[in-house]
Amino acid sequence: MKSTSRLGAWVAIAIGTLYFLLPLIATFEFSLKMNRDGYSFEAYKVVLADPGFQATFGYSTLMAVLTIIVGILLVVPTAYWIQLKLPRLRPLVEFITLLPLVIPAIVIVFGYLKLYNSSSWLPLTGNERATDLLLMCSYVTLALPYLYRSVDAGLRAIDVRTLTEAAESLGASWPSILLQVIFPNVKSAILSGAFLTFAVVIGEFTMASLLGRPAFGPYLQLIGSNRAYEPSALAIIAFMVTWAAMGLIQVFARNARPARKTA
Amino acid sequence: MAYLTINNLHKRFDDHVVVHDFNMHIEQGEFVTFLGPSGCGKTTVLRMIAGFETPTSGRICVGGEDITQQAAQKRGIGMVFQSYALFPNMNVTQNIGFGLKMRKCPADDIKRKVAEVIKLVELSGKENHYPHELSGGQRQRVALARALVVEPRILLLDEPLSALDARIRKNLREQIRDIQRRLGLTTIFVTHDQEEALTMSDRIFVMNQGRVEQEGRAEIVYTEPATEFVARFMGNYNLLGAADTQRLLGLNINGHLAIRPESIHVLDGHSQQDGTLAGTIRQHQLLGNIIRYQIESAGITLQVDRLNRTASDLMPAGTEVRLQISRDDMREVR
Ligand SMILES: Nc1ncnc2c1ncn2[C@@H]1O[C@H](COP(=O)(O)OP(=O)(O)OP(=O)(O)O)[C@@H](O)[C@H]1O
Ligand SMILES: [Mg+2]
């Protein structure tokens, strides 16, 4: 009984692994065949040397970093305050932060275009910097579910209320409490949220494309429809970046000192 | 005028009244205890004094200054929590120095004061340990040091010892009391352990359902309970209702009669002394230096304590005895 169920589990894992790995291996193998005479990294050289790649990747990285900063500044104090003073609102806030997963990005973008077009009261789509701002804000929206969930989980792992009160009774101001007591104790949770956000923003296509910004997602799409080998190389690179982000989440999750409620 | 005065304090959560008309006056340097069962509002009163909870009505004054609406940060009232509440990201030195840093104390002063208080709570050698590397007793001493080092006007301790095991608890409570005396610190200590309250306090406030049931010096509260509740809570009183009192002793009272188990004397069953009651031993319980008997008399079971001197003193169940209770040892309570 036991051995058959274990066998079943291994078969399921094997099928799952193949399902994920086969296309990846095939893509990788194909990306190496740019030169007729055997395997080479020629496609990668071409891609990495392309100024378009450098520009769009740099742009998306910058956007991701800004998104993370703004997202943290928005989410950490909010989640903290909800947990401390308004626990009854938590289900509502959780629901709101999940909305971006339910509402397709394209709907959100059309909403933006309608609200902020050049003849509206706040014409954010009028010039490039303003559109960048709008894009960044929409990325923050997209990142909300990931960021809020991980920060909230991190806050739940420490006794927020008592730590806050202990700091208060020692005369700490609110900024000091947030920066010196709360932030350091949810650092690893914030970081894992941040890397998830990074992975999401780097590959995002819909919003960047519809707002007409030179991001990595639209670039991937452009190359994909015009070239043969380079898109495979790009796909592998994008995968590596995402995986690096995931790997870093693991590293930080493991290095986090065991946060104990009673400590 | 007393140092800390609390007048007509009320606290309501939604429609649930948790603290009723709480009044209290504490002198500077006094050590008082809030004693009461779980849920009677001890923590809530303490949190209102600390400024973590706003009273529904009433006034709290320290040194003649009304602090009822003041922010917790500004009150200069130290608090030690049952769960220690040490900052997990800081080591012992940083935890203790936190309050001084918040007060913008110069670094040299912080260093000196932290070193002093570490010596005071006997934590030398643990300066660079993090909270998760310390035992419960050590953590609580860090928490105590952290509250002491900023020289609070009042120190509040909310069941600081209840998460610790018996031996450490005893040790630490002596240490707390000793430090409190040395620093002359006005202190409120919360507990639901009557022994702890009796051994530590100058004065005890026995609380029940959000009210002060009785307040007074420790020995008074113990020997002269004012109400049935206090008699029950301070431990082991025999409490007789009016009907039982009439039947057993032929006395007419209102309320209850409280008799301590050690004030009932057990005489030989053949004793002919006047004013004694016939009784039968039902069972006994060995409590170390005393033996507690359940003795039935006129259908009423009384608890009676006797010193446990030699093994041959033990009276088996079924033994017929006579009981003698002095009128002075009977207390009428509400
Ligand atoms: N924030 C709150 N909201 C609603 N009710 C509360 C709140 N805090 C406390 N209470 C209620 O107030 C009552 C008194 O609570 P409190 O914590 O003061 O009791 P306590 O005497 O400290 O008990 P314990 O010995 O268990 O710590 C309890 O019935 C509790 O449910
Ligand atoms: Mg309590």
UniProtKB/TrEMBL annotation, chain A:
Gene Ontology biological process: transmembrane transport
Keywords assigned by UniProt, alphabetized: Cell inner membrane, Cell membrane, Membrane, Transmembrane, Transmembrane helix, Transport
Pfam assignment, any one: BPD_transp_1
Coiled coil (residue ranges): none
A single cellular component GO annotation: plasma membrane
Keyword Transmembrane assigned: yes
Subcellular location: Cell inner membrane; Cell membrane
Membrane topology: Multi-pass membrane protein
Domain of life: Bacteria
Protein name: Putative spermidine/putrescine transport system permease protein
Species: Aquitalea magnusonii
Source species taxonomy: Bacteria, Pseudomonadati, Pseudomonadota, Betaproteobacteria, Neisseriales
UniProtKB/TrEMBL annotation, chain B:
Protein name (record): Putative spermidine/putrescine transport system ATP-binding protein
Protein keywords: ATP-binding, Cell membrane, Membrane, Nucleotide-binding, Transport
Presence of the UniProt keyword S-adenosyl-L-methionine in the record: no
Source superkingdom: Bacteria
Alphabetical list of InterPro entries matching this protein: AAA+_ATPase, ABC_SmlMolc_Importer, ABC_transporter-like_ATP-bd, ABC_transporter-like_CS, Mo/tungstate-bd_C_term_dom, P-loop_NTPase, Transp-assoc_OB_typ2
Cellular-component GO terms for this entry: ATP-binding cassette (ABC) transporter complex
GO MF: ATP binding; ATP hydrolysis activity; transmembrane transporter activity
Every ABC transporter domain range: 4-234
A Pfam family it matches: TOBE_2
GO biological process terms, semicolon-separated: quaternary ammonium group transport
PANTHER family the UniProt entry points to: SPERMIDINE/PUTRESCINE IMPORT ATP-BINDING PROTEIN POTA, SPERMIDINE_PUTRESCINE IMPORT ATP-BINDING PROTEIN POTA
